[in-house]
Design a protein that fits this description.
Strand content: 5-15%
Number of helices: 7
Oligomer: single chain
Structural class: alpha+beta
Length: 165
């Protein structure tokens, strides 16, 4: 078990890295590969910092954001392993396919109000829908996606994208 002093030093070392950035000097081009690398590393470091002290509850906000496919696969397995070891893992995500693959239970919010809370299988079965994406659309009353899509395509071809979102 880590002592408080050692844990504090480790945590400080990890969290200090999140403030690093690559910036171009005036007249220089930014380093896009370095920036992408930093973003991926930052996400991994923040996840490591979240679990460094072996918490009973792990809260992750959009943990798959910025990860490459391999890192995302490792994170999915890691989240499952945490849950298998009796940890409570709470994470927010807009990627419903990942939520469907990883989570044993989901909470769906609409305007900050819970409109669905159950296992993915029970939500799909109860609403007789094929996927979590379809359940989400039904519970949040996703307004006419086809109409919005036609509007976006029309705006794109007319050069007026700003008003279509």
């Amino acid at each position: 078990m880590l002592g408080v002093e050692r844990l504090t030093k480790r945590y400080g070392a990890l969290t200090a890295v999140r403030d690093l950035s690559f910036e171009a000097r005036p007249g220089e081009r930014p380093l896009p590969d370095a920036v992408r690398l930093l973003e991926r590393m930052r996400q991994k470091i923040l996840i490591a910092a979240a679990v460094l002290h072996d918490p009973r509850v792990v809260i992750l906000d959009e943990p798959f954001s910025g990860l490459d496919v391999s890192a995302a696969r490792v994170l999915k397995a890691f989240v499952r392993a945490l849950a298998d070891s009796r940890k409570i893992v709470v994470f927010s995500s807009h990627v419903l396919e990942v939520v469907e693959q990883v989570c044993s239970r989901v909470v769906i919010l609409r305007d900050g109000v819970i409109v669905g809370h159950d296992s993915v299988a029970n939500l799909r079965s109860t609403l007789q829908l094929p996927s979590l994406d379809a359940v989400f659309a039904a519970l949040v009353a996703d307004d006419n996606i086809d109409e919005r899509t036609r509007g976006l395509v029309g705006a794109m071809t007319s050069g007026n994208m700003i008003h279509s979102w």
